[in-house]
Amino acid sequence: MPGDHMDDLYNAKNPLVRFVHRQRLSEIVKIVPRKEGVAVLDAGCGEGHLLAELYKKNDCGAYYGADVTAVALERARERCSFAHFYHGDLSHLDFNDGSFDVIIATEVLEHIIEYEEVMHELLRVLKKGGVLIVTFPNEVLWTVSRFFLGRRPIKIIDHVNSFTPDTMKEMVGLAVVKQRNLPFSLPFSVSLGSLIEFRK
């Protein structure tokens, strides 16, 4: 079974690419509270890399992954036997209202045409007072960086949306707890991506 796209990035031969994506995981793990029974949903979990890192920090949490890709979920189940997985569309999640303390959507929304429907659903299953963590790439900078890495600077084919911190905050509509550009705290215009922590 071949690895998924994110698996290729986390283990890329290019040290810059590898650093950027592993740094993103590290920043997310720092935010998720380390307490017993904390319910965490990785929306668009892919092969479960983030869930595995979260479990290393807190093995007393209740971890869930949701993804539309069956092959990726099969690998995630192998990697994360401690977690529960849901196969299906993120805009129609089979969870009760207010099920999760923390929901994470990392590098997901740029792949989804109906991203507003997905966000509405994520907010439905997030508890009042819960934390939503969203990360997304700076499409322009990734295109330029491909050029400097000797790769043709083309639009990433499976990205159907692009966001800025302002457009993301307007779309989510929750209070912002923390905003950080990735992998370094530089202006978004010269950063490769952004992480925003919201509270419901």
Notes on the protein architecture:
The protein has 200 residues and is of the alpha/beta class. Helices cover 36% and strands 24% of the residues. It is built from seven helices and seven strands. The chain has helices at residues 5-10, 15-31, 49-57, 70-79, 115-125, 139-148, 165-172, and strands spanning 39-43, 62-67, 84-87, 100-106, 126-137, 175-182, 193-199. The protein has a seven-stranded mixed sheet, with helices on both faces. The longest helix is centred in the N-terminal third of the chain and has 17 residues, at 15-31. It starts with a helix and ends with a strand.
Write a short abstract of this structure.
The chain is of the alpha/beta class and 200 residues long. The protein contains seven helices and seven strands; from the N terminus they run H-H-E-H-E-H-E-E-H-E-H-H-E-E. A seven-stranded mixed sheet has the order 3-2-1-4-5-7-6, with helices on both faces.
Number of helical runs? 7
Lateral arrangement of strands in the main beta sheet: 3-2-1-4-5-7-6
Shape category: globular
Percent in strands: 15-25%
The overall average pLDDT, rounded, is 86
Structural class: alpha/beta
The number of strands is 7
Question: Which secondary structure elements does this structure contain, and how are they paired or packed?
Answer:
Elements: H1 5-10, H2 15-31, E1 39-43, H3 49-57, E2 62-67, H4 70-79, E3 84-87, E4 100-106, H5 115-125, E5 126-137, H6 139-148, H7 165-172, E6 175-182, E7 193-199
Parallel strand pairs: 1-2, 1-4, 2-3, 4-5
Antiparallel strand pairs: 5-7, 6-7
